[in-house]
């Protein structure tokens, strides 16, 4: 399971390449290297399960974090295709807002997020493991998130960008330049 990550508020145009590189190293390069190593070993033994934690944020346009999580989902799908028939499955889980310390550590204001959108970690894990057992490549934890993801996937990109901007502005705390 690849689950390392952190929130990123660094504007893409900030010039703070070191912070962007850190996000890339932790949430892209590590997933690439560790999934590849695990996949080779699992393929050789004929069985295994790889879970990569992505995010519904990867369906939005909220800077580097969204781009990174979109990559994790796409990478997981590509790896699943490559490993089809080997006994190894790959699942990308796309959680929404989960009650953990993530948001506090990422300095994300959560007061504008409706209570109905919050998931408990146990609920997310149970849903993901059910999807892994079924061999699903994409795991979306609840009916309400499946509906929201469906809307995001079929909405005009201009609307998705508008929603992304509204979400970003409502939850970000000021970041020093």
From TrEMBL:
Name the keywords, alphabetized.
NADP, Oxidoreductase
Pfam families assigned: adh_short (PF00106)
Per its UniProt entry, which superkingdom is the organism in?
A: Bacteria
- Tell me which positions the record assigns to the signal sequence: none
Is the keyword NADP in the record?
Answer: yes
Against InterPro entries, the record matches this protein to:
NAD(P)-bd_dom_sf, SDR_fam
Gene3D superfamilies for the chain: NAD(P)-binding Rossmann-like Domain
Enumerate the CDD domains for this protein: SDR_c
Q: Which family does it belong to?
A: Belongs to the short-chain dehydrogenases/reductases (SDR) family.
Official protein name in the record: Short subunit dehydrogenase
Per the UniProt record, the source organism is Frondihabitans peucedani
């Amino acid at each position: 399971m690849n689950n390392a990550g952190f929130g990123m508020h660094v504007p893409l145009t900030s010039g703070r390449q070191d912070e962007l590189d850190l996000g890339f190293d932790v949430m892209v390069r590590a997933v690439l290297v560790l999934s590849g190593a695990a996949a080779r070993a699992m393929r050789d033994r004929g069985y295994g399960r790889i879970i990569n934690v992505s995010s519904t944020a990867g369906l939005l346009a909220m800077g580097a974090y969204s781009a990174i999580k979109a990559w994790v989902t796409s990478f997981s799908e590509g790896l699943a295709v490559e490993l089809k028939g080997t006994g190894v499955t790959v699942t990308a889980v796309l959680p929404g807002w989960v009650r953990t310390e993530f948001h506090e550590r990422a300095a994300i204001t959560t007061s504008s997020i409706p209570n109905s959108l919050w998931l408990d970690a146990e609920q997310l894990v149970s849903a993901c493991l059910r999807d892994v057992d079924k061999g699903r490549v994409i795991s979306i934890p609840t009916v309400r998130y499946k509906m929201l993801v469906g809307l995001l996937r079929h909405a005009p990109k201009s609307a998705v960008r508008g929603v992304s901007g509204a979400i970003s502005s409502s939850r970000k705390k000021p970041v020093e330049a």
